[in-house]
Predict the structure.
Amino acid sequence: MNSSDKVLSVRIPSSLIDEIDKVAKKRNISRSVIVREALESFFNSNRDIQIEFAPADIDVKGNEFLEEMGWD
């Protein structure tokens, strides 16, 4: 794990965990690697989606909002 990596806890249906475990076992890697690769693939294939990080009524300068949310 990289020193800049952060931990994220999510709830995942057991049927999906079973699928993750099958792939992880077959590839001899951890669940974390499978989930990270899946998320990277999702974001790489959805780069055209516009995400607004802060509501319009909040005055945010630079990366203050991202830093405040821990997303820097």
The helical segments are 14-27, 31-45, 64-68. Residues 14-68 form one domain. The chain has three helices and no strands.
